[in-house]
Amino acid sequence: MPTTMKNRRILLSAGFCLVGIFVILIIPFFVELRSPVTHSTDERDLRENCRLLGITSTIHPFGKDLFDVLTSFGQPSFPQNNGWSLSIYSDITRGGLLAVPGEPMIIRSQIPSTQDIDLFQNAAKLVAQLNPSILIGHLRNASSGCSGIADPHPFEMEFGNRHYLMIHNGGVWGKDLDYIVDHLISGRNQPRSCPETPIDSEYLFIYLMELIEKHNGDVWNALYEWATTLINTLDSDWNALNIVLTDGDMLWGVRISYRTDRFSLHYKVSGDSEFSAISTQALNPDWIPMKNYSLIELRSGYPAYLEDLPYPVIGDDRQPYTLKFPYTLSPVKQ
């Protein structure tokens, strides 16, 4: 065989080998790109959060602007299958149209906002026309307790002639919930929304209200103790404790999530603080994300006040289900 022909066969064989190696290396790359990424099969990882909204405003009439915000809020990217609620304070003494000062009006539905758009939008039009000074909204995707009822959020309770409402996004499960029920709340207050199958969120609210009573109505320090205690005594990395709270005068928000990529909160302050708001999802690009482990206070006519919460203790020093007090409370706001 001529040397030239032999060399060609050797080069051809080498070429096939290189092509084979290339195919072996590149096919898995394309398979990985084309194949869906496999995540945890835990149902808590597959479920989308509830959706929260809180607004405080001195702008009257609010009208169409508020209706547009609520329309956006009521059209979530992911299903919220267990109803919704809209709650307002609209005191006649503050430019509103409800007669009883300090008493909220609450509209609740069992039907998801996306399944009866007319019902949700009619409710949104009504609350917008009542010139509310405070509004909170909740779209529910139930994580515990009864689900075949109208949205039980917000939970409500009175203390010191103020009517408090709270909505929650996230969840507390298993031993963590047992610890709250058995060790953190007094037992004087019991869940009202679903007495036979209580909701974790209502236990969180009961604990917070007992701390507000303990602190003689000082909501800021009560929230700080509530958050710090839960961060350092609960154990599951699935816990999420995002809340919006109001007493009819101010709004407070807490963002706590062991998983920083989930359970977000955003806030916005417009003009001379005439309009302030907090929401799970940013409703437009100029909303500011809240840091994980943080607390915010919003009040019309005042700047937003934010403070970091302590990160949970980790490693060998962590002792869950052990109440270690006193913690250092938040500095007094100036």
> Separation of termini?
96 Å
Shape, per Cα inertia axes: globular
The assigned CATH architecture is: 4-Layer Sandwich
Strand order of the largest sheet: 3-2-4-1-10-9-11
Question: What is the overall pLDDT average?
Answer: 80
Helix content: 25-40%
Number of helices: 7
Order of helices and strands: HHEHEEHEEEHHHEEEEEEE
Q: Could you say how many structural domains there are in total?
A: 1
> Approximately what portion of the residues adopt beta-strand conformation?
15-25%
How many distinct beta strands? Answer: 13
Q: What class do helices, strands and sheet pairing give?
A: alpha+beta
> What composes the largest sheet?
7 strands, antiparallel
CATH topology assignment: Glutamine Phosphoribosylpyrophosphate, subunit 1, domain 1
Cα-atom radius of gyration: 26 Å
CATH superfamily: Aminohydrolase, N-terminal nucleophile (Ntn) domain
Structure write-up:
The protein has 334 residues and is of the alpha+beta class. The chain has a single domain, classed as 4-Layer Sandwich (Glutamine Phosphoribosylpyrophosphate, subunit 1, domain 1), CATH 3.60.20.10. 30% of the residues lie in helices and 22% in strands. The protein is built from 7 helices and 13 strands. The protein has a 7-stranded antiparallel sheet with strand order 3-2-4-1-10-9-11, with helices on one face. Strands 5-6-7-8-12-13 form a 6-stranded antiparallel sheet, covered by helices on one side. A hairpin with a 4-residue loop joins strand 7 (240-246) and strand 8 (251-255). Helix 3 runs antiparallel to helix 4, helix 5 (174-184) runs parallel beside helix 6 and helix 6 (200-214) crosses helix 7 (219-233). The longest helix is centred in the first third of the chain and has 32 residues, at 3-34. The termini are far apart.
